[in-house]
Amino acid sequence: MKRTLLWTLLALAASGANAADVVKIGFIGPLTGPDAHWGKDNQNCAQLAIETLNSKGIKINGKAVQFTLVSQDDQEDPKQSTLAAQRLIDDGVNAVVGPFVSGTTIPASRIINQAGVPQFSVAVNATYTSLGYDNAFRLSAIDTRMGPAIAQYALNELKTRRIAIVDDRTAYSQGLADKFDAEIKRLGGQVVRREYTTPGQNNLSPIVTAIKAAKPDLVFVAVSDSQAAPFALQMKQLGLSTKVLSGDMIQTDTFIKLSGRNGEGFMAAVAGNVLESRPQGVEFMKRYQQKYGKLPLSYGPQHYDAVMLAATAMQQANTIDPVKVKAALKKMTYEGVNATYRFDAKGDLVKAPITVYQVKQAKWVPIKVTY
């Protein structure tokens, strides 16, 4: 009896000595709903980063750590995003990756900031890093830079002057469209029509008719892929033949499948890099395809990088203490699969890449990269 108890105690002591501390990385994204393909891809990339870290046998402060991803579905709804954030904080996560879009990231950021843990998001709306939160880190170009950059491309590279604009009134879409609109006017272009829709509204014929009457030589469309596809069809049906430039949310295989030949020639400006141009990106694409049987979407790589950034900062700080981890993030430069990450005082990415893609023979082809 005593000998059995002794061996039991020794076994428990040994297992405790060898057990790794668990570091929880929270993930928030649309895992259901119209943009679930984005959310699931972002989650896949974050999970791949978790597995990469765990294969390295990482130690922090001399102690082996095991990383795990704790996911929450926000359905791309602001109320759900705040609930998701609170659930992650209650679960004791050490960092949060997401939410995905500006309209969910901004309300969730208040909850995450109160907990003090680092938050990483690809949201482009300027508000995200303008709230004074020291834990907010943006992984993509801010709309105050992205909107003007797209406008400059429209006027200077595409040689257009008469512009029509469509947005869906979400924080992402309207913020980007407003910045684009202002820069077009500042540079001497003319906004001949400004139209609005709402997410999920696929009968865009009245908008197409109004735009056609304005005779633009380019339409800027800040909507999702599922809405841009019927827009392309209705352009064809109503005889609107003009250049179309979009924000990043249409740069997916989903758009190409839904739009068919109607989407040929459409352009999309993406707040990210051409992965093939970076050795890290090429290796990442190879590993992602081996694991999931397909290539990642535009913002998946940033979610992979977010997990790696959090872990690297913890290693550099030699602690999971969020105050010290945030301090490390503000000082470090990290070579990720998507970009070289260095953050300014507000948490915005310095020299964030922007890539313009165009649909050519049913494939998205990069045609321009700026930094």
- Percentage of residues assigned to helices: 40-55%
Encode the helix/strand succession as letters. HEHEEHEHEEHEHEHEHEHEHHHEEEE
- The CATH topology of the largest domain is Rossmann fold
What is the CATH homologous superfamily assignment of the largest domain? Answer: Response regulator
Number of helices: 12
What is the CATH class name of the largest domain? Alpha Beta
Biggest beta sheet summary: 7 strands, mixed
Tell me the count of domains.
2
Count the E strands. Answer: 15
Q: What is the CA-atom radius of gyration, in angstroms?
A: 22 Å
What is the strand content? 15-25%
Structural class, judged by helices and strands?
Answer: alpha/beta
Overall 3D form = elongated
Average per-residue pLDDT, rounded, comes to 94
Distance between the termini: 71 Å
Low-confidence stretches: 1-18
CATH architecture of the largest domain: 3-Layer(aba) Sandwich
Arrangement of strands in the largest sheet: 8-7-9-10-11-14-15
